[in-house]
Design goal:
Blueprint: E1 3-6, H1 13-20, H2 23-26, H3 39-51, E2 57-64, E3 67-76, E4 84-91, H4 100-115, E5 120-123, H5 130-138, E6 142-153, E7 156-166
Parallel strand pairs: 4-5
Antiparallel strand pairs: 1-2, 2-3, 3-4, 5-7, 6-7
Helix pairs in contact: 1-3
InterPro entries: Acyl_CoA_acyltransferase, GNAT_dom, N-acetyltransferase
Protein name: GNAT family N-acetyltransferase
Domain N-acetyltransferase: 3-167
Length: 167
Amino acid sequence: MSCIIRKWKREDAKELCYCINDLRVLNNMTDRIPYPYHIEDAYVYIDDVLASDETKLFAFAIEYKGHITGSIAVIRQDDINRRSRKIGYYLGHDYWGQGIMSEAVKQIFQYVFKHSDIERIFAAPFDYNPASCRVLEKCGFEKEGILRKNGFKNGEFHDMIMYSLIK
């Protein structure tokens, strides 16, 4: 299997909408993403990412067999955490369970460590998302602990599990 991570293109908007416009996907993500997700939302996201400063944000489309299957990004933290980045990712439901995300996570952390001064990448998936935890563990991330009632999603508090990877 071989997926690639690459810069977004405006013509990716339709497939982006297809992947993200699914509550099974959105229930594991930030509330900043609207539902339903419209083509205009995709264009705004893609334009913002393309205009962003790479010293603060690395954001890529995940492509598999010629199709956009999801997104992956790492966001630089600030102040005393400026040498850390938070990783976020999602995959369209049709592509779950195929090893695509594990491959994309490996590609992005190799890219980040090679092209920046970042020493630590971290993630904190919801406790109800064991698939995301498995992806991180397969990629060498270590579990640091539980962030109790750290996330409020769909009207309920949830624990989040902190993982990190050190350069």
